[in-house]
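Priority: medium. Attachment 1 of 2:
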């Protein structure tokens, strides 16, 4: 297990650092926004896929790839001009929501709810409407929110 964690972290750091160095060295300051959002999405997919291929944790790999993706920019003290466009992120979110709804609808039609009984239904209702708000309240109790 420790090996899987270390592999995921090392792959994420390597891919994030590589991405950071390549975008810093190859791009001009005026053209940094071009395709940055697509590169960020592909960075997560490559990092996750590579870590899972080598039997590492893909989630940790994606986390550390994102953490080290702007390493050179922060080290040089440059302003963050390479943030993906908010419209692009919104469109990707909408696409993923539609994608998820199509597959969720397909699983409903295929009979995924055949395994649900009264106990499972009551547990789901209690965890959504009682346990989740209660834990949120406990977590934010001293925060003043």
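Attachment 2 of 2:
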């Amino acid at each position: 297990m420790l090996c899987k964690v270390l592999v995921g972290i090392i792959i994420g750091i390597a891919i994030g650092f590589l991405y950071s160095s390549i975008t810093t060295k190859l791009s001009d300051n005026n053209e940094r926004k071009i395709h940055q959002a697509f590169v960020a999405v592909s960075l997560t997919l490559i990092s996750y896929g590579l870590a899972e291929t080598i039997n590492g944790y893909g989630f940790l790999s994606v986390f550390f790839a994102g953490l080290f993706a702007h390493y050179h920019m922060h080290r040089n003290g440059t302003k963050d001009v390479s943030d993906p466009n908010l419209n692009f992120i919104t469109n990707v979110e909408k696409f993923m929501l539609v994608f998820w709804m199509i597959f969720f609808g397909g699983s409903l039609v295929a009979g995924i709810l055949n395994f649900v009984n009264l106990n499972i239904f009551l547990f789901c209702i209690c965890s959504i409407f009682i346990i989740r708000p209660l834990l949120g309240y406990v977590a934010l109790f001293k925060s003043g929110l």
